[in-house]
Amino acid sequence: MAGAAHIHSSDDARRLAKRRLPWMVFDYIDGAAGRETGAARNRAAFDAITLDPRILRDVSQRSLAVDLFGATAQRPFGIAPMGMCNLSAPGADLMLARLAAKYQIPHGVSTVASTPMEQILEVAEGHAWFQLYFSGDGAGTFKLAQRAKDAGYQTLVMTVDVPEVGRRPRELRHGFKMPFVIGPRQFVDFALHPRWSLSQLAAGKPQMANFEMDGYDFDRTESRARAVWETLRRLRDLWPGQLVVKGVLNVDDAVALQQAGVDAIQVSSHGSRQLESAPAPITMLPKIRAAVGPDMPLFFDSGLRSGEDVLKAFDCGANFTFFGRTLQFAIAAAGEQGLHQLWDVITQELSSAMAQTGRASLLKD
């Protein structure tokens, strides 16, 4: 698509996506909790971090590869779990899966993905992690975990920062619901964005594909507040592979998770979509690193927009990072070509920043 040539930054991808997506869909992807001061706080915290330029170091041969659970990821950033990605464009889930396979990086497969977890894992050539929400009384949750285990997933990501779905006014004003409820307002919105609407009509309405299984009815608004430490212990007993806990912003919680035997902790504010008054995750990352020590794998997401942001996260203690909504914007802007264009932009930004700061590698000493 011609639009891919116009993507030179994450901001470009967002700007193009805003023009092409229905207002309801754009605000669902882009929105944050409350008045969105949490998202602004996180961006301000990133912008306040500076990098230290170094000179006269041989950085002519730079590697962006890092170790990840005993394997080599070709980039130090992966794909965060995002619900209903196919709203950005039909087939978006599988575009992300192909990207994961190409660069041997994890594709976080959301509980509320638009494509069955088995198909994504196959297309990603095994480079997929299943993200799990606890919901209701937990019966369906453990069925999903068992299904992921049976499908061949090696890494499970338990997301713990959604005891209740956060209030995101932009999304609520549009009446966003899954499955869609089409009223006059939504009809006008879709009619004014015919390219998106026609492509979705041709592909079929996006579904929450992982719930098409016996004994499990999913309600996006159902309370997830019953998850407790015993839930984690049960999941640890069930899951033989790597167990990551995502959505951690408290030092004491991080230490308790380390003691509970999880394999990695993901510092995250859910993209500022849950608690408006939460601290900026990038400010908590070095505190959590200091508390858990140098050997505990720490992952990071929330607010990453560039390769320089990735380097800042590594400087603050991350072992790996994840991009989220900005990848959906690239897909909405220019399809799979747009996704690869933005991926290349982030790669170039990181490589250049490494050169400017005198680094040939991100591997920890």
From TrEMBL:
Protein name per its UniProtKB record: (S)-mandelate dehydrogenase
Active site location: H270 (proton acceptor)
Key words, A-Z: Flavoprotein, FMN, Oxidoreductase
Recorded name of the encoding gene: mdlB
GO cellular component: plasma membrane
Binding site for FMN: 81-83, 110, 131, 159, 246, 268, 301-305, 324-325
Domain (FMN hydroxy acid dehydrogenase): residue spans on this chain: 2-365
A molecular function (GO) term: L-lactate dehydrogenase (NAD+) activity
Residues spanning the membrane: none
Upper classification of the organism: Bacteria, Pseudomonadati, Pseudomonadota, Alphaproteobacteria, Rhodobacterales
Keyword S-adenosyl-L-methionine: no
